[in-house]
């Protein structure tokens, strides 16, 4: 084995060790604190150089970690989506930026998602639920469009500020859907001119808020349950394979013992035969 491969194996054991992972998580949390302190003018005036130096050191550690993974896994590094995610987060932090783009440094805190298995599980579930979420968004847009046309036709004459155009109507209905001041700010003022307006808003809330939005939760929960079931199946399969291998190993050892026992019996038989011959 070459020295390069030996070095790769040692670095892989180091970078994948549980202690190393915990240290990286602690550094990410420390970075969250330093980035938060940078928003305080009082703190920066008191210990700004220390915080900036700590930020540079933390970024150096993240960069070194990514470079080690690139050296260890080579092309395999890019096959792991979470490694690619870490690479781009660190790369963005390395790009010199000023003004509004400087806030992109905070994206490095998202590395906590890739480091904590439970957070990774949630994100993967969200990604798996994207097709269903897109379908629900399409249904929600259709419902919004239909109700917006109806509301614009019914209420634009008396309340043009909220329902004068299709865009204004969709924004007003979005406020109603979130249940933020929908009664005092939207529904009741309209009911002063249209007492029957409750017959429009109540069905809209029931459909858009309590039905369609809850479908998002249902789809995400279903995706998480399917991922959990798949993980359990994989774990059970691994246990089954492990037990099968152990059984095979045990059967092979038992067979070897039987063969040795037979050989010992043959030797004992020959020895008994020789003793009987000598006795005669």
CATH topology of the largest domain: Four Helix Bundle (Hemerythrin (Met), subunit A)
Q: Regarding CATH, which class of the largest domain?
A: Mainly Alpha
CATH architecture field of the largest domain = Up-down Bundle
Estimated share of beta-strand residues: under 5%
Q: Give the biggest beta sheet.
A: none
Overall pLDDT metric? 84
Order of helices and strands: HHHHHHHHHHH
Relative helix content: over 70%
Through-space gap between termini: 64 Å
Q: How many DSSP H or I helices?
A: 11
Number of domains: 2
- The low-pLDDT segments are none
Query: What do we call the CATH homologous superfamily of the largest domain?
Result: Voltage-gated potassium channels. Chain C
Using only C-alpha atoms, the radius of gyration works out to 34 Å
Shape: elongated
Structure classification: mainly alpha
* Number of beta strands: 0
